[in-house]
Amino acid sequence: MKGPVFTLKGVRKVFRTGDEEVKALDGIDLEIRRGEFVAVVGPSGSGKTTLLNVMGGIERPDAGEVWFMGRRIDTLPERKLSDLRLQSMGFVFQSHNLIPTLTAEENAEFVLFLRGVPAKERRRRVREVFSALGIENLAGRFPSEMSGGQQQRVAIARAVVGNPAVVLADEPTANLDSENTVAVVDLMLRINSDSGTTFVLSTHDPLVIERAKRVIRMRDGRITLRR
Amino acid sequence: MMWLKLAWRNVWRNRLRTGIQSLLIGGTVYVGVVFHNLALGNYRNMIRQATRMGSGDVTIYDTLWFSTRRPSRFYSVAPLRKLLHTPEVKTFYERLYLSAFARVDLMGFPVNLVALDIRKEAVDHPILKGHRPDKEDGAILGRGLAERLHVRKGDRITLTVRDAKGELKTLSFTVDGILDVPIREVDCCSIFGDIGYVRRSLRYGDGAHEVAIMLKGESPERFARKVNRRLPPNLKAYTWREAMRELVSAIAMDYSGLVLMMLFLYVVVSIGTANVLFMSVMDRTREFGVMRAMGMKPRHISLMVALEGLFLGTFATAVGLSLALLTNLYLSTRGIDLKAIYSLLSQEGMTYGGVVLEPVIRSTWEWKGTLGYSLFVVILSLLASYFPARYISGIPIGEALRK
């Protein structure tokens, strides 16, 4: 049996704006195993993004524990969390994912650059991934020269180019039409099955939900259904 | 390389904003470099004028001359000839300064009699330039004095003056030239006469109160030290800085004003640069959030913003400096003719620190200051990135991603 990538125990997160308190996560217990393709679904404000951010060490929970590959990460200092994200996680966001002043190839290269991979090796690996994902033709384009679907494909390429253990994707298809949505999800599924990379994505798109291997439904910061 | 590429492209994301700020930074460098070289060119001109008119690069005086100004503090020039005929010396001028009394009809005026080799000094003396008296007893005086004495060219004037032994003597001159001099002391009260004639008439032998030495390019300080080792104890060689303290103070005060003004301007422009970088990073808060989520560390963000400040400053400085050098090339060869402005302010001309100013100001090439001003702006641009970098790298990632 594959071990867990993420283990969340009693995770709570509250956002305060003035006197108002919003419980974004309200006692989440969750385990995600290696190689899973998980869709976190639910209406806006249900806590999907916060859950992904807490899993990725972007936000710290107010209570509870977050474990990543057998290591507790919610107490790690920011510097170590940055290293962890850089070495073991890939991220895809809903929009404005790419650095606008870098080409698609340079965007994908950037993660490897931060890891200190030599330039020649970086370019080789990026070309390999672009070729595998069928987006070689986008290599020299700047984000402003690409459609939303193309940008998300490049963002996925950037997320997986460093062979991370997990890719966290926050509504990666929210701004895409159905054709592009299917293409992007299929791409992630292919990577998941080919390389065994774990995918956790938040969505409320039925096209994504029906393709996911596991679905977690959220409402008001709680998990209401696991499938 | 990636950092440099990223920073350079980020600088040009908002071309209008970068363009305007580059104009401001470049303009500051331009003003700094042009005014620095123009001011130094002007000071050099003033010093040149002052040394030709008065102290020379190095001057030899009796050690009590400055404190007493007594005519008796003259010295024989003959023993110094060996010192004065060395390769470093371009030329030297012997002068006597005497107090006299000019009498016309029933009126009398105290005057200063300056005895010098008019023919020799007329080559480049700022006041006497071009005046070559035909006769040995020819004298040149200021217009103010000529009017007071009611004399014209060709008239005779008689001075009562003490000779080298302290006895009162009468000395006659023929007015050979009348000067329009903007220096009040010269205009109202000075008479320039031939040193040979004065020495013979007043029994001064080869005596002088002052030997002003013009050097070929040797440092005045070094030359003065060398000469002082060989001079008798009653004589001392002074550099022009020591001999003309007023001028040195006037230049120092003027240059301090310029430096303070430039400093103020640079600080204001640096605040503008910091503001531009602030706006630039705030526009990209989410982007920085994405980068941090990917694993970029706060120090990387700081490095990137610092590079953006450095690029902005370097680019703008390069443009400003290039234009400043072109302007300086023009100003150093053609100069600025201020005759019109001078004539509006004064009929005779302008003086500063007791020196007659030449109406055409030419700038110089002073590389230390030129590069110093430019480098200072680049460093300030780099420093201006500190607060924007600190601000943006301090925003929590989750908060940045929500922007």
Going across the major beta sheet of chain A, what is the strand order?
Answer: 6-7-8-3-9-10
Average pLDDT of chain B works out at 88
Q: Tally the helices of chain A.
A: 7
Low-confidence stretches of chain A: none
User: Main sheet of chain B?
Assistant: 6 strands, mixed, barrel
Proportion in helices of chain B: 40-55%
* Number of extended strands of chain A: 10
What is the distance, rounded to the nearest whole angstrom, between the alpha carbons of the first and last residues of chain B? 29 Å
Strand percentage of chain A lies at 25-35%
Q: Tell me, briefly, the overall form of chain A.
A: globular
Give the overall form of chain B.
elongated
Radius of gyration of chain A: 17 Å
Q: What string, H for helix and E for strand, traces the elements of chain A in order?
A: EEEHEEHEHHHEHEHEE
Percent range of helical residues of chain A: 25-40%
Q: Give the overall pLDDT of chain A as a whole number.
A: 89
Largest protein-protein interface: A-B, 29 and 23 residues
Oligomeric state of shown chains? heterodimer
List the defining traits of the structure above.
heterodimer, A: 227 residues, alpha/beta, four-stranded antiparallel sheet, 7 helices, 10 strands, B: 403 residues, alpha+beta, two-stranded antiparallel ribbon, 15 strands, 54% helix
